Amino acid sequence: PNILRWRESVYPTGCHYARVIVAGSQWVKNDLTEQYGINPKKVQVIPWGAPTQAVPEPTQELLQTVARKYNLPASFAFYPAMLWEHKNHLRLLDALTFLRNQKGLTVNLVCTGNLQSAFWPKIKQHIQELNLSSQAQFLGMVSSQELRAIYKLSQFVIVPTLFEAASGPVFEAWYEGVPAACSTVTSLPEQAGNAAFLFDPFSIEAIADVLQHMTTDPLLRQDLVEKGRKRLGDFNWERTAKAYRAVYRRAAGRPLSEEDQFLLNWDWMRNPKPVDLEA
Q1: Neighbour count for residue 55 (Cβ, 10 Å)
Q2: Closest CA relative to residue 98, chosen from 134, 132, 61
Q3: Helices then strands (H, E): number in the chain?
Q4: Is 236 helix (H, G, I), strand (E, B) or coil?
Q5: Closest to 119 (Cα-Cα) out of 147, 88, 92
Q6: Residues forming a β-bridge with 111
Q7: Which residues of 87-109 are buried (b: 16+ CB within 10 A; e: fewer)?
Q8: Quick one: pLDDT at residue 75?
Q9: What does the pLDDT look like over 157-184, one tens digit per residue?
Q10: What are phi and psi of 64, to 5 degrees?
Q11: If exposure means fewest CB atoms within 10 Å of the residue's CB, which of 26, 129, 214, 247 is most exposed?
Q12: What per-residue confidence (pLDDT) applies to 278?
């Protein structure tokens, strides 16, 4: 509550005095304008690329080392996220239990995130209550290189979060050539387009259904890999950097080039990548 009060004091004030506001998605822009009464023309949407793109490609030796170090199963779903309540780990664990008890299907889950989180004891207790210790592994924080390796070792990525301004793990799954499934909340449908299996994160049965399909349907996984690779083409770090340069020029009252104007007027989330900028 104290953090929320601080944010609701500082954020609207910052938005009011700023010349330009940058949001990572159209959904965040809409939320800012609705909640804080901000002029939409003041808010610029600039999405990210895959955060792990700056990390070296993992070698085969590293993949084997990481698999041994964490005793990873041969096949598993991966959820990289901080262990906060809105990340929805409890329903994800409930869905694993539903599949095991109702469908006879065992799906392994690997999660990363800070085990010092205040919510971790509740997750740990839930694992014990559901008898999921042999299925659900929480590795704690891992290095960036290990993270890339775990992505590549996983069968698919699942992001059942209840709130997201934009999902780094969805970008990263696409970058690693891993199929992704994510929630139908906030910015995620806008970000994912048709390149992720979308599901209701409030429904245990819906989460279980996506886990079952992603585990048992190789054609679905391959289709999502191909769509993810194509969708990632719409998000490019060089273009992101150029857009930030343009927005800094705009904030400073500097003249904008033709490219600057194009980037600041382009709908990042809905339009295909601008071919003329790739020449």
Answers
A1: 16
A2: 132
A3: 12, 8
A4: coil
A5: 88
A6: 79, 138
A7: bbbbbbbbbbbbbbeeeeeebbb
A8: 97
A9: 999 999 999 999 999 999 999 999 999 9
A10: -65, -40
A11: 129
A12: 41
